[in-house]
Design a protein that fits this description.
Shape: globular
Radius of gyration: 18 Å
Number of helices: 6
Structural class: alpha+beta
Helix content: 10-25%
Oligomer: single chain
Distance between the termini: 37 Å
Mean pLDDT: 93
Number of strands: 11
Strand content: 35-45%
């Protein structure tokens, strides 16, 4: 997986409505999306010193995030992802894991024995050496648009919430979720490989988009502690 550009913006409901209407004319919705959106739930990990959190806050140039992602708490599709950022570009590598493996990871009982899945091997090492453990659940509704030229993917992430109760990851709803952003505020993400085609870039020219470097994990961790870097 090569590195990709990934820009994030804070947007309002009105902004998203206008941009969505424009993008529908030049892009297609993600083939995995049924209806207007789908739900994403991620379990984020951090080490004993919360270095992933601190590196995001400090804007460290090279950093990684570790998470387990599901789309349906009752489904069997569970994916471990490691997201790496270097010099404002990102790449993601992942592998499938079973529910039994996920439970062992969450409980800290996963054996260290390595297999062919490199992301899983790396997480095991981090759990053993850096005492990495689950720290937060982040959930939101996503609408995704794609285009093959530039491998462009534009997503709207609405109603982002966080929970500190990681043992509720497979519950119908995470326990005691907390809104991460003010009401009516959401995240627009623009991702592409080498270039963003002009005919797509023009569809994003609306008002003044507020670019942000904060990750959902960072915002979520602050939210569950009653701290909000974004004006409420």
């Amino acid at each position: 997986m090569e590195f990709r550009v990934e820009n994030k913006y804070l947007v309002t409901d009105a902004d998203l409505a206008v941009i969505a209407a424009r993008l529908k004319a030049v892009m297609k919705q993600d083939i995995h999306q049924t209806g207007d959106c789908y739900t994403i739930r991620s379990l984020y990990f951090d080490d004993i010193n919360d270095n992933c959190l601190k590196e995001n806050e400090d804007g460290v140039d090279q950093r990684k995030k570790y998470r387990i992602r599901i789309y349906d708490p009752k489904g069997d599709f569970i994916r471990l992802e490691i997201k790496e950022k270097q010099r404002s570009v990102t790449k993601k590598y992942s592998c499938r894991i079973t529910r039994e493996e996920c439970d062992m990871i969450m409980n800290g009982t996963m054996p260290l024995a390595f297999d062919s899945r490199k992301p899983l091997n790396e997480l095991k090492l981090q759990m053993r050496c850096a005492k990495m453990v689950p720290k937060a659940i982040i959930e939101y509704e996503r609408t995704a648009f794609v285009h093959p030229v530039g491998n462009v993917r534009i997503t709207f992430d609405r109603n982002i919430s966080a929970s500190r109760y990681c043992d509720s990851f497979f519950d119908a709803k995470p326990h005691s979720p907390v809104p991460v952003l003010p009401s009516g505020m959401h995240v627009l993400e623009v991702k592409y490989d080498e270039f963003l085609p002009d005919f797509i870039a023009k569809q994003l020219e609306i008002s003044i988009l507020r670019q942000t470097s904060f990750s959902k994990y960072y915002l979520g961790r602050l939210a569950v502690n009653g701290e909000f870097p974004v004006d409420r």
